[in-house]
Amino acid sequence: MNLLALLSTAQFLYLLVSVAHAGTLTKNGDVCTVSPSDDGSDDTPAILSAFAECSQDATIVIDKGTFNIETVMETVGLQNVTVDLRGTLLWSTNITYWRGAGLPLNYLNMTSAWVFGGSDITFNGNGYGTFDGQGQVWYDFADGAGNVAGRPISLIIANTTNSRFTGIRFVQSQFWTMAITQSENLLLDHIYVNSTSNSSASTLNTDGVDTFFSNNITFRYWSVTNGDDSISQKANSSNILIQDCVFYNGNGIAVGSIGQYNDTYEFITNVTAERVVAINTVWAGYIKTWTGEVEGYPPNGGGGGIGYASNITFRDFAIANLTNGVTEITQCISYNGDTGGCGTSTFAISDYTFESVFGTISGGSLANLYCSNNAPCPGIDLDFANVVTNGTRNLTCSNVVNPDFECTGPAYYSPY
Ligand SMILES: *[C@@H]1O[C@H](CO)[C@@H](O)[C@H](O)[C@H]1NC(C)=O
Ligand SMILES: *[C@@H]1O[C@H](CO)[C@@H](O)[C@H](O)[C@H]1NC(C)=O
Ligand SMILES: *[C@@H]1O[C@H](CO)[C@@H](O)[C@H](O)[C@H]1NC(C)=O
Ligand SMILES: *[C@@H]1O[C@H](CO)[C@@H](O)[C@H](O)[C@H]1NC(C)=O
Ligand SMILES: *[C@@H]1O[C@H](CO)[C@@H](O)[C@H](O)[C@H]1NC(C)=O
Ligand SMILES: *[C@@H]1O[C@H](CO)[C@@H](O)[C@H](O)[C@H]1NC(C)=O
Ligand SMILES: *[C@@H]1O[C@H](CO)[C@@H](O)[C@H](O)[C@H]1NC(C)=O
Ligand SMILES: *[C@@H]1O[C@H](CO)[C@@H](O)[C@H](O)[C@H]1NC(C)=O
Ligand SMILES: *[C@@H]1O[C@H](CO)[C@@H](O)[C@H](O)[C@H]1NC(C)=O
Ligand SMILES: *[C@@H]1O[C@H](CO)[C@@H](O)[C@H](O)[C@H]1NC(C)=O
Ligand SMILES: *[C@@H]1O[C@H](CO)[C@@H](O)[C@H](O)[C@H]1NC(C)=O
Ligand SMILES: *[C@@H]1O[C@H](CO)[C@@H](O)[C@H](O)[C@H]1NC(C)=O
Question: Which keywords does the record carry (predicted)?
Answer without folding.
Answer: Cell wall biogenesis/degradation, Glycoprotein, Glycosidase, Hydrolase, Secreted, Signal
